[in-house]
Design brief:
It holds the Pfam family HTH_3. Residues 10-64 form the HTH cro/C1-type domain. Keywords: DNA-binding. InterPro entries: Cro/C1-type_HTH, Lambda_DNA-bd_dom_sf. GO terms for molecular function: DNA binding. The protein folds into 2 domains: 6-65, 434 Repressor (Amino-terminal Domain), CATH 1.10.260; 79-108, no CATH class. The protein is globular, with a radius of gyration of 15 Å. Helices cover 61% and strands 0% of the residues. It is built from 7 helices and no strands. Helix 2 (21-28) packs across helix 3 (32-39). The protein is an all-alpha fold and 112 residues long.
Length: 112
């Protein structure tokens, strides 16, 4: 795997958020095996999937696909504020997935 390959970038972005491949693939509604292949540079996602992944991680598509892209991913300083401002703009099905995922994470930590 190249140092700045798509797969390496995807893995770094996922691990920075303390998520598993299964969690990311469930949130993005893609097969876990497909996402694993993306991270291991065995397959290249479709353009639509690249857009979905870039939006999920908050990075430009160019960051994911260009090995010479100089800009690092932008990190939201106020993630909670951003989330609450934009949650209502999401499709209802995505909102339900996010809520279910949050409930699952909280129950795993014994909070719910």
């Amino acid at each position: 795997m190249k140092n700045n390959s798509l797969g390496k970038k995807l893995r770094a972005l996922r691990e920075r958020r303390h998520l598993t491949q299964a969690e990311v693939s469930a949130l993005l509604h893609i097969e876990r095996a497909a996402y694993s292949n993306y991270e291991n540079d065995k397959r290249i996602p479709s353009f639509e999937t690249l857009l979905l992944i870039a939006d999920f991680y908050g990075v430009p598509v160019e960051y994911l696909i260009r090995s010479d892209y100089a800009e690092t991913p932008r990190h939201r300083k106020h993630a909670a504020e951003w989330f609450f401002q934009n949650f209502g703009l999401l499709d209802p099905g995505i909102q339900e997935t996010i809520i279910a995922f949050a409930d699952f994470q909280l129950s795993e930590k014994g909070i719910h």
